[in-house]
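Hey team,

Filing this mostly as a record. A colleague (T.K.) asked me to run one chain through the structure pipeline before their review meeting, and I want the input and output archived in the tracker in case anyone asks later how it was produced. No errors, nothing strange. Just documentation.

Input sequence:
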Amino acid sequence: MKKHIPNCLSVLNLISGTIGTLLALKGELVYAAYSIYIGAFLDFLDGFTAKLLHAQSALGKQLDALADLITFGMLPSSILYMLITTYETCPYRPYAALCMVVFSALRLARFNVDPKQADQFTGLATTANALLVATLPIILKRALYPNLVNGLTQPLVLPLLTLLLSYLLVAPIPFIALKFQGFAWQTNQARYCFILLGMLCIVAMHVEGLFLSIGLYILYALCKAKIR
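Output structure:
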């Protein structure tokens, strides 16, 4: 029985992503964003319980990827499509959101066949990308930082952000994987620093802090890749 628990969590993740996509297309973008957070929590539990119960399987790996494609690919694409439709006058720009679901599929497929992505990712993880997208409707609704809201709603900003994030999903750029193989400080300095920074940002600024911390995570990877 216990071997089915991780797969059940993957199915719940899939359901969360499906409901969130329907909510997004109905214009309930904040609730759609919450579906991404729920899905991310379920995705974490899925991997954690699979390791804890020694219930990892080829079927579970594929099911997890399919669930992630909906929750972290289709759902954020739907949110961006609706946001771009809201803030852009050009009828063609919202279709930039289609790039995200396509590139998310490529990212997940590559991850499944690449054994080298244990301690670092090649390309932005779909989960991190989806969490960043999930902050946008909440930031725009709360409007606690007018300059940030004004910047995000300028013409072309959301379509260009969508294309940039889509590219980063498949870019040959190394990103720190926030997965611990051990807990030694020497081998996990960057992980500990990013986790601490992220927690501080979230405590201080809430959802805007999550947006900032993921943005800094991306910027760090880009700067490190350029230095190399």
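Quick notes for T.K.: The radius of gyration is 17 Å. The chain has a mean pLDDT of 91.
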